[in-house]
């Protein structure tokens, strides 16, 4: 493996990791603040990808499709939170797991009814449909660099909001002691709705910008969900910082795993998780 | 956990057992030519009931919510498939102990890692371990990849040269599974009422207090995890015999979610509830599949409805019928599933209304 190839894999791993971070950050926020395990998180990633594919087909413009798809995703999160999750906050995790499991079945099947079971793809949009010539036979897609930039920018925004705004203070306090935040007169009800919608929007957005890079298939949400669970467990549940470093670690591990040791590549991330749990049962940044 | 069942539970269970056990007598009259097919369905329900019951030991009795229980179910199926000689039938006398041993070892290894975690971490780590085996099996060349492995010959049950029970015969296999379910039920009933079961119940209510009393709670939880895994593997082995193949889907987390659903639908912590849940789930599934190709949407909505309105499952309706319940306070209405004594001296703060 020469240096340029290694570099490309490094970039790929970074790009995949950053994408995972967008999804995992929503997952970990929703759990950290609301105490809800959202199994339907992966399904929302899939919905994001399908929405953008459908809208690009109709409108002929990828960027316009994203602009329209984001409010739809936020609205979907709002409806789910208000309709279903509202009654579950005081119940055991078990019921949340089951309810969101039921939601997966409904969302996956709704997707089949609306969009069918075919595999789709979205063309890489202009002006990023070029690639950089690294060496004679190695190229790197500009769109991937763009995705990386967007993910990093969003990670920066999330970091800024959590560290330096009043909302961030409430979120951090809520992750430590929800009852106390309630006791101090914060409207937790509104906060929950906001967090859930933002979390869902983040994962749906990840699906949207990932759409030109992956094939859009009915089961795409399920596999990414499990990977993100691993990310969140490794990083420490509820920790955004943990989600970030966990996502980078898993992104690298999966990318290099599939290049270097393809026979057990799909297991590598679980082995890492087991190792982390042995040393730190509550995750690296908890 | 219920230490003593109300009398009507015993009556319902005995009636159900009698109805199911006599199916070969009344089945042909009711279902006609469909009877053989229905017997297969019924056998599957009995097997899934055993599977759901094994999970109840973890979720309902100890309070450990596992989202990776299909790991052991699938492991049982694959152990049978891979250990069976290719052109010959295996003997049940070594196959059953082998399946139990493999599951026990796997449960011990996984358990040692996951028992240290609690609550949501337990859910996520069991899920991850289940998926780990799923990917291992579905990519392993010896296990047939995503196609799975076919089982050409069911194991035989013989004593010397004479066949005790012809497991190839659907009817005798049905009775074999039913016997396994009854034995499993009696075993779990005995276990939960034993000293060991009392400790598990104590851990469910307040683990810190049990530790303070000097119990090595992790050891108790680990043993419960292993027992639940072994029972699930037996169910998985029976399922593989019934289907005639072992498939990665049997290991996947959707299977874990489904069995959890059977448990909730039936009523957890009751041992008999999951049996009702497995039957109810399969009957619903069968009905929906006949109604529409988009049956998952109906199933999903049923799951959501069950979680929202029937948190204690069918068993809750039987042991504590709504029409017999006294007027309950608003506090109890909010958490009807919480029958355990409150942990702290004060109820939790209510959410501030906007």
- Basic shape of chain A: globular
Query: Mean of residue pLDDT of chain A?
Result: 87
Total beta strands of chain A:
2
Shape assignment of chain B: globular
State the major sheet of chain A. Answer: 2 strands, antiparallel
Quaternary state of the chains: heterodimer
Notes on the protein architecture:
With 286 residues, chain A is mostly helical. Chain A has one domain. Chain A has 11 helices and 2 strands. Chain A has a two-stranded antiparallel sheet. In chain A, helix 1 packs across helix 6, helix 1 runs antiparallel to helix 10 and helix 2 packs across helix 8. The longest helix of chain A has 32 residues. Chain A starts with a helix and ends in a 7-residue tail after the last helix. The model of chain A has no long low-confidence stretch (mean pLDDT 87). In chain B, helix 7 packs across helix 8 and helix 12 crosses helix 14. Chain B is mainly α and 354 residues long. The radius of gyration of chain B is 21 Å and the shape is globular. In chain B, strand 2 and strand 3 form a beta hairpin. Chain B contains 15 helices and 4 strands. In chain B, strands 1-4 form a two-stranded antiparallel sheet.
List the helices and strands and how they pair.
The complex is a heterodimer of chains A (286) and B (354).
Chain A: H1 3-34, H2 41-59, H3 62-83, H4 93-115, E1 131-133, E2 139-141, H5 142-164, H6 166-176, H7 178-183, H8 188-210, H9 220-235, H10 240-260, H11 265-279
Antiparallel strand pairs in A: 1-2
Helix pairs in contact in A: 1-5, 1-6, 1-8, 1-9, 1-10, 2-3, 2-4, 2-8, 2-9, 3-8, 5-6, 9-10, 9-11, 10-11
Chain B: H1 7-21, H2 23-31, H3 35-62, H4 70-83, H5 92-114, H6 119-139, E1 149-150, E2 157-159, E3 162-165, H7 170-193, H8 195-205, H9 207-212, H10 217-243, E4 245-246, H11 253-266, H12 273-291, H13 295-309, H14 313-319, H15 330-334
Antiparallel strand pairs in B: 1-4, 2-3
Helix pairs in contact in B: 2-3, 3-7, 3-10, 3-11, 3-12, 4-5, 4-10, 5-10, 7-8, 8-10, 11-12, 11-14, 12-13, 12-14
